[in-house]
Fold:
Amino acid sequence: MLYFAYGSNLWREQMCRRCPEHLLLGSGSLAGYRWIITSRGYASIVASPADLVLGLVYQLSAADEQNLDSYEGVHQGCYYKKQVSVLLEGITTQCMTYLDPVTGEGVPRQEYIRRINCGIADAGLDPAYIERYLRLFVPESLP
Structure:
């Protein structure tokens, strides 16, 4: 199963712990969505026709998907899974991603700032994208 990561799962160390069988396929982009931190304090994406979200695409085993569902709180209603069309190396492909049912914007939890920044450092995202979207919510270092 293909998974599009846009938040703390951009951090390679975290993905290795959570999904030991995963395979990184490359960078992807998702049109029609915008990156936010919700009022719960974690990253999500919301529909926004003029925007896009950059992230990484992973191949996950069934066991990895179950692990990730647990970490993302799917069964507690913290996130839900959705199939989205991601551009991966010039080819549109269907990927699963996680969305928070809470769409109100907020500030990141303190512990989350470090994880997001580790993911930003690992993912090699376009600096202009980072400044335009992620830095609206996540400072470069802890306050």
